[in-house]
Amino acid sequence: MKKHVILMQCHTAPEQINLMTALFPADQFDFYIHVDRKSDIQPKIEARENVRFVPDGLRVDVRWGRFSQVEATLALLRMVDPERCAYAHLISGCDFTIKRPEAIVRACDGREFIQSKILPGDTVWAWGGLDRFMVRYPDWMIRRPDHRAVRAIRLAYREIAMRTGLYRLRKTPTDAFYRGSSWFSITGECAAWMLEYIDAHPEYTRFFRHGVCVDEIYFSTLIRLSPFAGQIDGDPMRYIRWKGGRNGGPAFLTEADIPAMAESPGFFARKIDGIGLCRKIQSALLKG
Questions:
Q1: Which DSSP symbol is given to 111?
Q2: Does the pTM of the predicted model rise above 0.90?
Q3: What is the pLDDT of residues 241-262, one digit of tens each?
Q4: Which long-range contacts (CB under 8 A, 24 or more apart) does 139-145 make?
Q5: In a domain, 223, yes or no
Q6: Inside any domain, residue 66
Q7: 102 within domain boundaries
Q8: 197 found inside a domain
């Protein structure tokens, strides 16, 4: 029987990760975990028969907004054996399940649970998101928004590039681009196809390597090139409460979100800061 694989990117919260891995039966679920190269939590994550780690030599130093986010995801996908994997679920170490394992298995019926919305389309992103991949950014310029001086330089650089054509990439690997959450649940066959495609088309990865926050475009576009495009569900099956605004990311969830989690079709909640809330979710949603 094919198993489900939960691919996890993490750098903190080993206790929360241990609670998560303990909830999933080893005969149906495996965990493949990428621990950020900067982090020392790996020895604190409990060894289980269904838990494997990305080898030390392949661990990535993940930096906000940089291509390293995609590289960490690819390192996890390369651990997936499509002959043994029914679904691959990509989450972070601060996410937590809001569905019992058997409910997740029942819901996974061959659809690809990944967002893939046309760009520029209906988005609050500046330049309709086109600047994220059409401009070649130096790595030092890609920092979190709270680094205000660097962000101001990057925005000025972006405006010059987009308005004048300087530092813009000319040759694109596809005629259309799509956006979506960088967290998804896809079939093992789809995961295998993605890796085969990018290995056969290195220009695809080269194109995105110097963009900003392209993890929200790379996979959402890639699946549109695949034979699995007709199976895209469009819902990544994650419960997320957004901060709002142009630069608003996902808010940290609280106990007040549990009723909404219960109503959500999602498999996992993103994102949770603290094992206390995880235990409350476990008690409220995962018993019985």
A1: -
A2: yes
A3: 988 655 568 899 999 999 999 9
A4: 139/63, 139/66, 139/210, 142/63, 142/64, 142/65, 142/66, 142/212, 143/64, 143/65, 144/64, 144/65, 145/247
A5: no
A6: yes
A7: yes
A8: yes
